[in-house]
Each structure stands twice: as C-alpha cells, then as structure tokens.
Amino acid sequence: MNPNSPSEERRTVVVVGAGPAGLTVGNILRAAAVDCVVLETESRQFIETRPRAGVVEERVVHGLRERGLADALSARAQVHGACEFRFADERFRFDYAELTGLHHYVYPQPLLVTDLVREYADVRGGDIRFEVRDVELHDLETDLPAVSYTDPGTGRRHVLRCEFVAGCDGARGVSRDAIPDGRVRTARQDHGVGWLALLAEAPPSSDCVVFGVHPNGFAGHMARSPEVTRYYLQCPPGDDPENWSHDRIWDELRERLGAAGAPPLHEGPLIEKRVLDMHNYVVEPLRFGRLFLAGDAGHLTAPIAAKGMNLALHDAFLLGDGLVAHVTKGDDTGLDGYSHACLRRVWDYQEFSAFLAGIYHGTASGDPFTAGTSLARLRRLFTSRAAATAFAEQYLGSAAAY
C-alpha cells in the first residue's frame, strides 16, 4: 500500500461493518461530533431486510434509549414477560417478569438496523459507504492504522488513514482475520447439532416464546411480527434444508411443540429455510493494536439463548463511549478496559448458552442418563423459586458480570 496515494483520506475512526454493533458505534461517535466513516460490503437494502435475531434485552433497550436510538423500537416492539416450556406432553409457563421485574422486547434485527442506518446517515449525516469491495486492514500496531477498499463503481482503490478501527463485520468479515496468528487466542465449542431456521408467513401460535424439549429434538417458536413467526427444529449438523419438505417440517413442529391443552399451530408458507450449525467462539483479547473487535467479529454465541445481538450492542456501547472519551477528553480508561469488560459478559452468556443447550438437546441425545439429567434441570425451574430466579436473571441478562 502506497501511503502517498492520492486517494488517501484521514478519519478519526473507521468502522468496518454496518450491523447493529457498527451502526451503534457510528451513531455514538456522530452524536459526539467524532469524525468517522462506516464501510459495508452489502447494499443498504440488503442489510435492512436480512432476516436475523429479534429478542432484545431490557437493559439493551435502556442503553439504546440513553443514546437516542430507541424511538421506533419503543413504539413498535412487542413486550414479553414470559415464555413456555413444553415437555413430557405438558405445558409449563415461565413468568420471568414476575421473578425479576424485567422483560424482553421482540423487535427483528432488520428493523433495528433500518432505524440505526436512518439515524446515522439520514438524520445525523454520517458517512457510510455501501457495497465496498476487497476491504483490507493495515498498520494496526502503529498510531495511524488504515483501511483500504475498492469502490465498486469506479474500481478505484481508496485508503482511509485513521486513529482507530472498529471491527464490527461479523463472523465472516476481514477484521478478525487481520490479526496475525498467535497474537490472540480463539476458544471454540461445537455443540454437535444443527438447527433448521424457518420463517413462516403465519401469525404466532402463542403469546410468548415456546421451547419444545422432545426426544425427536428441540423445537422453538418465536413471534417476529403479527404476520410472521420464527421456528427452529433441531437437525443433524450440516443437514441440507432441502431434506425438509413443507409437510415434514410442519409434522415435526406439531409433534415437538405438542402438549396437552396446547392450541394448534398456525401454519403458512415458509419464506426462509436454512441450517445453522450450533457452535461458539471467543477471541481474547478483543483488541489488537488500534483495532477493536465488537459483536460476532470477536465472539459468536449460537442462537440457543438469543444473546448474539444483545452482546453486540453491549460491546458497541462500551466501544463507542470509550472512543468518545479518548477523543473528547483524552481519557483512555474505557478503551484500556474494553476487552476485559466485554469478555466478562461474553463468558457469562457463553456459560448460560451451554447450560441451555444441555436442556434443549439432552432429551434427544440418545443417552438415557443425559436425557434424565436434562429433564431434571428443566423441572427444577418449576419446583424451586430460587432456581427459577437464577435462570430468569441469566435469561434476561440481568445477572451478567459487568
């Protein structure tokens, strides 16, 4: 890379990736008049319509509100205070709001991304560049790192020289791969199962999230809107979605979510069908030189506990605030403590995800001992208020280490 390239620009912060984490960091920086640019390899329309998570913790909603980023969410999100477990042909309602006073907000990630893009680009006048190609990170251990990319319209190479790079480009982005081998540790876990992720054009069949724990495998029901429902079916890892016909899917959903007194499922066309292999990883530390990793770029949590987007936004709050404090006050406390603060919460959520995976998948493991202990854990939630409260605090994120 030629540092004297005529296409070189100077910015204070370059944010790589326009997901929830990157856009939240960008909005925090714009609100504090910190110069930044957001780079995204996809189009605006793509990121605003891509199906993703939809459960937002109440503490995350408070964080968005404090930064002026939750107006639409507050007006449109569904508020949930309970979930339901179905196993052994019985229904068990779990009222976590009664136990903790906290709730979940159901607000699909594409809607949140749309809100954050509008606020950053249209309201706050932020610089965001879509559909960039061949993004590369350079000189990360110097005082002036850089990010280069190709403009898809002109084919011209551009260089953004900056003080900091926020790597918010997800599990398949370039930020994590820009760190040389041996400079960070990556811990990985594979649950050995897959989930068939489905979106159905059908109204929700319950007023809350439903978890089916069944010898055939786990099943999940989550409202996304009054007209669309997210379903999950446990399947072999790497399974081909085409192995699952419309009839087979609905037969399994009825079987695994069935219980005495349960209302019938509202069925409809399936508009998404893909297999997610359940695995996790954590990068330690989340900083390399002037590069900070946030969200799935630094840690992946399988959707078992609906924690991924919430962790990404927690990261973004800490990173955005830390960058603002450095630029406006010369205070490096937030940046110096960023990785440690994030990872305490990340590992707390990973532990809960592993615990929940044991409950969800143990009954279908084929091992009678594992199945028996899994159901014992589940029953304990409905026989011990102390166990139920501890579970609710983890489920809502209120017990996570700060």
Structure description:
The protein is α/β, with parallel strands linked by helices. Helices cover 35% and strands 27% of the residues. The protein is built from 12 helices and 21 strands. The protein has helices spanning 20-31, 44-49, 58-66, 71-76, 96-100, 109-123, 246-256, 308-329, 333-336, 338-362, 368-380, 385-396, and strands at 8-10, 13-16, 36-39, 55-57, 78-80, 83-87, 90-94, 104-106, 127-129, 133-138, 146-150, 157-161, 164-167, 185-200, 209-212, 219-223, 229-235, 270-284, 287-288, 291-293, 299-300. The protein has an 8-stranded mixed β-sheet with strand order 7-6-15-16-17-14-18-21. The chain has a 6-stranded mixed β-sheet with strand order 9-3-2-13-20-19, with helices on one face. The protein has a 4-stranded mixed β-sheet with strand order 1-12-11-10, with no helix packed on it. Strand 6 (83-87) and strand 7 form a beta hairpin. Helix 1 (20-31) runs parallel beside helix 6 (109-123), helix 1 runs parallel beside helix 8 (308-329) and helix 10 (338-362) crosses helix 11. The model has no long low-confidence stretch (mean pLDDT 95).
Rg, Å, rounded? 22 Å
Structural class: alpha/beta
Low confidence ranges: none
Helical content class:
25-40%
Tell me the fraction of residues in β-strands, as a range: 25-35%
Order the strands across the largest sheet as they lie in space: 7-6-15-16-17-14-18-21
Shape: globular
